[in-house]
Design a protein that fits this description.
The protein is about 35% helix and about 10% strand. It is an alpha+beta fold.
Length: about 650
């Protein structure tokens, strides 16, 4: 009897934009038979659209607590220290990506087992290319599993019987009691799948689908993760002869070399986006970096996920634009001062913190809020919106309040450095709601204390800015305010771009150098990092002094692209960064009698503390999964 498999045909010609997944609310499995799918290019396209739409990408719809297809409030960046958010506090990923992963793996395996029966309908190149795509998607899915759980069951064939129903598919791993493989074995399996994909995929493919260089780039990412685990992880779980959590340190160089070699395969095929870039011109460099994330024809884009309103859209603009540009959600991603201070061009104290007071300990006054950031690295301004910056031809008004006392003798700090205390009453007027009572200035004019996008101090329910900064990266600068609504954004998500390949190669090269592997790895790392820094408008490094130079560059370049969370985890440093940590903010105040501004750096006024439990380096396998199989071992600490 021929096997039968249901395919979501509605995605056939609509591009490869993902659709909101229903709760396995599907027709019977025998609605579409194999010959209906596997004998025509349209049928194959339908299948591919289905499995690409399920690819586990931490994109606009990824939420740490809600999964990959969620419409959410809160920013994933608010669990990394990049930003704070009203609706996303200290936490880890909790949605339990397991059953959906094995459903997708089954779809890949089914495709690979069934397509050869119909190969005579197509050319050899077509068949090999499609098999390469299936192996690419399977590898990416296993990577999503292994970076969360360590070793997982490796399933490389269809386990359920012909005509199996949906419950059989979701429970097959547990019912057949397939044990977890070692973490090392899973990474080796991923590498083999990406190698097959690279060998068989075409040089170019439809936008939103993988080509051979996407396979190489993804391999460079996965192998870099494996090398980091081998070198830095100290959590071990052994079951029988399998090391389920952890990779022997002796394997680190092998994985770093695999990452380096895979990145080298992409060289010359893509390039850093510099369409609007002019040497020494900060404005041009800033605009170039802004455009990078919105140019569909960017030379840097290796693998993207497309969105299109109304069938498949997301919430990014509505979630993140400054409050004055929407009447809805807004300002969910409020970059921290800790993040902003990573960049060049800001006035800084000897310890690297931003300089806002003079030698007498009194606030430095500015004519405009933007004056503090005059020399900021162009990449920073293209990543975050400063107080007083222009966006959509509007001055973005972010204020904490209006200082109302006499400023003639200077203004002392409102609260001591390091204090978590509230601001003192009587020295300034603030605002408790988005509907503000205007304050009358000495010249008789009136000013709203918080501005149109500033902090509204009853934090619940209001959408004002809570850190002093807003996100700029990925926002559409010409999107009409009337269209800044939930589920109305359609900019594509760039899952992997050439800058990351350079960063992967630089990190892998420096790690190989640090492990004494010889070669010219140290110089290779410097060359790649300086290529990134030059495009960013930053000064070039004379040398790389340690791995932190590369990690810092990665955090700046890939900020708010949902990469930092897993980087901090693979480096095994987030528990040190988040140790009862309160992130810092930078709030501007308007001085009423001087018609000037000062900035106050302080801890987040909400006193929201972040702590990373070391057991989170390996996530909890869903308890229901463990309960169904005596052969599956839970990760440590759960």
């Amino acid at each position: 009897m021929k096997r039968k498999f249901y395919i979501f045909l509605l995605l056939t010609l609509a591009g490869l934009a993902p659709a909101c997944k229903k709760n396995l609310d599907v027709p019977p499995m025998n609605v579409v038979q194999d010959p209906d799918v596997f004998t025509t290019s349209n049928g194959i396209t339908s299948y591919m659209a289905r499995i690409y739409s399920e690819l586990p990408i931490e994109d606009f719809k990824w939420g740490p607590n809600t999964g990959f297809k969620a419409y959410f409030y809160g920013s994933p960046s608010a669990i990394t220290g990049e930003a704070i958010s009203r609706d996303q506090q200290n936490s880890t990923e909790t949605f339990g990506y397991w059953a959906d992963a094995y459903l997708l793996i089954r779809e890949c395996n089914y495709f690979m087992e069934t397509l050869p029966d119909y190969a005579s309908n197509f050319t050899t190149a077509e068949v090999n290319g499609w098999l390469g795509e299936a192996r690419f998607i399977r590898a990416a899915t296993y990577f999503a599993l292994v970076k969360r759980y360590g070793g997982v069951p490796i399933i490389d064939k269809v386990l359920t019987k012909p005509g199996a129903n949906i419950d059989d598919i979701t429970q097959s791993i547990e019912e057949l009691k397939v044990p977890r493989s070692s973490e090392e074995a899973v990474y080796d399996f991923i590498a083999a799948d990406f190698d097959f994909a690279y060998a068989n995929l075409p040089e170019s493919n439809q936008k939103g689908r993988a080509n051979k260089y996407a396979a190489a780039a993804f391999k460079s990412r996965a192998m870099l993760f494996a090398g980091s685990i081998a070198k830095y992880n100290n959590i071990t779980l052994v079951a029988g002869s399998e090391r389920l959590c952890g990779i022997p340190a002796s394997k680190a160089a092998d994985y770093f070399k695999a990452s380096y070699d895979a990145a080298m395969l992409v060289q010359g095929k893509y390039s850093l986006y510099k369409n609007n870039w002019i040497p020494g011109n900060k404005d041009a460099q800033y605009q170039n970096f802004v455009n990078l994330f919105l140019d569909a024809n960017s030379s840097e884009n290796i693998f993207v996920r497309q969105y299109k309103y109304p069938d498949a859209a997301h919430w990014y603009d509505a979630n993140n634009v400054p409050y004055q540009l929407t009447g809805g959600v807004s300002s969910e991603t409020c970059p921290t001062l800790d993040f902003v201070e990573m960049f060049e061009g800001l006035p800084k104290n000897a310890d690297g913190t931003i300089k806002t007071v003079d030698a007498n300990g009194q606030y430095i006054l500015y004519d405009r809020p933007l004056d503090l950031f005059t020399n900021a690295e162009p990449r920073l301004r293209a990543t975050v919106i400063f107080p007083g910056d222009l966006f959509k031809n509007q001055n973005i008004e972010i204020r904490r309040g209006i200082y109302t006392q006499n400023s003639a003798g200077g203004i002392d700090k409102l609260v001591p450095f390091g204090s978590t205390s509230p601001y003192p009453s009587g020295k300034f007027v603030g605002s408790a709601t988005a509907v503000q009572t205007a304050y009358e200035l000495p010249d008789g004019s009136k000013m709203n204390p918080a501005g149109l996008s500033g902090i509204f101090t009853n934090y619940s329910g209001q959408a004002g800015n809570i850190s002093g900064f807003s996100i700029r990266k990925y926002l559409v600068p010409d999107k009409p305010t009337s269209e800044v609504q939930t589920n109305r954004s359609e900019q594509a998500w760039i899952e992997l771009r050439y800058a990351e390949v350079l960063l992967n190669r630089a990190e892998a090269a420096y790690e190989l150098y640090s492990l004494g592997q010889g070669g010219n790895y140290q110089q290779d790392a410097l060359t790649d990092i300086n290529a990134i820094r030059e495009r960013a408008g930053a000064s070039l490094l004379p040398s790389i002094t340690n791995i932190d130079d590369i990690r810092m560059e990665r955090r700046k370049e890939l900020a708010f692209e949902n990469k930092t969370w897993f980087d901090l985890r693979r480096w095994r440093i987030i528990d040190k960064e988040q140790n009862n940590t309160i992130y810092r903010i930078l709030m501007p105040f308007y001085v009423a009698d001087a018609n000037k501004y000062f900035f106050d750096p302080r801890f987040d006024e909400r006193n929201s503390r972040y702590t990373f439990d070391t057991k989170w380096y390996y996530e909890q396998i869903p308890p229901a999964v463990i309960g169904r199989s005596t052969n599956l071992v839970q990760n440590p600490g759960y």
